[in-house]
Amino acid sequence: MATIKLASSLQPLVGFGLWKVPNADAADTVYNALKAGYRLLDAAADYGNEKECGQGLARAIKDGVVTREEVFLVSKLWNTNHAYEHVKPACEKSLKDWGVDYFDLYLIHFPVSLAYVDPKERYPPAWWDATGPGGKVTLSKDPMSATWKAMEELREAGLAKSIGISNCSGSLIVDLLRSAKHKPEVLQIEHHPYLTQEPLIKFAKEIGLAITAYSSFGPQSFLELEHAGALDTPSLLEHPTIKAIADAHSKSPAQVLLRWSTQRGIAVIPKSNNPERAKQNLEHVNFDLTEDEIKQISALNKNLRFNNPADIHPELAIFA
């Protein structure tokens, strides 16, 4: 499997995303993904399914499908744990839920500090207070530099082999680098032909920051959430440009969308509950797009972002 070289490990270029995997299905989903050949699992505390996902990993290890060392396991620090003293306990809880001793990569999920929520009170805590969506969003004053210092200590303690960030703009990354002892190794971002983020990607490559794309199928990833923007946006899987390129290579539109990223050195973490599609997603690296085809796909950019915290609250406008 193709990989991306990080400072302390090799990250698979293709992984399996665990966002929106129901708890009841999570163990089987992880087990089947590993059995299908996936070796990167992308998780997060916020997904609320790490314990069940860990059961699937444990079963796969027990059955000899994989060893722990063969799996590149990713998790993420949630916004309510940005205070320096809460970072390590948050990581340790995720590790315990997974039943492992270390993460291969641990990311700051969003550059947003929210008021601390005790896991015994509510877990995962989400964006809002106990009233749920539409309720109160309570920010904290914990600076990113303090959060990153705690992340660096996770790396030094061996709880995370590599550390990184997600959903961060270039200006914030520049500021973070000013005080960082260990620079972030990976930046995970929303990335698809409707949101190409070319300046950010060029910047990341210039400073040696590896990119992982999420929501590679654009609006498709948000339909089950009944996201208004996604519901009103033409599907990339049905777009004439994507379908024509797919037909030219005898590939699926999903494979074309994924190859558009990976051929440019950007890792992807698609999820599919369909075994055949999951297999196709994993095997999409077995062909190459032409330079002109890549340009055609990139030309579909609309700067259209679906995962925007500003939709939750104006003070969360991190991409403004």
TrEMBL record:
<comment type="similarity">
    <text>Belongs to the aldo/keto reductase family.</text>
</comment>
<keyword id="KW-0560">Oxidoreductase</keyword>
<dbReference type="InterPro" id="IPR023210">
    <property type="entry name" value="NADP_OxRdtase_dom"/>
</dbReference>
<feature type="site" description="Lowers pKa of active site Tyr">
    <location>
        <position position="76"/>
    </location>
</feature>
<feature type="binding site">
    <location>
        <position position="109"/>
    </location>
    <ligand>
        <name>substrate</name>
    </ligand>
</feature>
<dbReference type="InterPro" id="IPR018170">
    <property type="entry name" value="Aldo/ket_reductase_CS"/>
</dbReference>
<dbReference type="Pfam" id="PF00248">
    <property type="entry name" value="Aldo_ket_red"/>
</dbReference>
<feature type="active site" description="Proton donor">
    <location>
        <position position="47"/>
    </location>
</feature>
<feature type="domain" description="NADP-dependent oxidoreductase">
    <location>
        <begin position="15"/>
        <end position="301"/>
    </location>
</feature>
<dbReference type="InterPro" id="IPR020471">
    <property type="entry name" value="AKR"/>
</dbReference>
<dbReference type="InterPro" id="IPR036812">
    <property type="entry name" value="NAD(P)_OxRdtase_dom_sf"/>
</dbReference>
<protein>
    <submittedName>
        <fullName>Aldo/keto reductase</fullName>
    </submittedName>
</protein>
<dbReference type="GO" id="GO:0016491">
    <property type="term" value="F:oxidoreductase activity"/>
</dbReference>
